[in-house]
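REQUEST FORM: STRUCTURE PREDICTION
Request ID: SP-0412
Submitted by: Lab K.M.
Chain count: 1
Length (residues): 74
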Amino acid sequence: MTEKAAAAPREFTPVIRRLSAEFDGVHPEPTISRCVDAARHGAQDVTGRATPDLVERIARQHLKVLALAFAERR
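STATUS: Completed
RESULT:
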């Protein structure tokens, strides 16, 4: 898959920026970007829509759980 094909739509760039600032030092930006993309696809599959607000809330919860899982492994 090319980098261009993996890029989230432009409307999700602010979501990635906000989550990157919130999880700075916890998750690298590529992880956050992939999480946002997965949240976008999941929201689209389940609800038929993927608004930036909904995607951000889903991605934030996933990133929190991922951080907890990594902390338990240490």
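NOTES: The first helix runs from residue 3 to 6.
Reviewed by: T.R.
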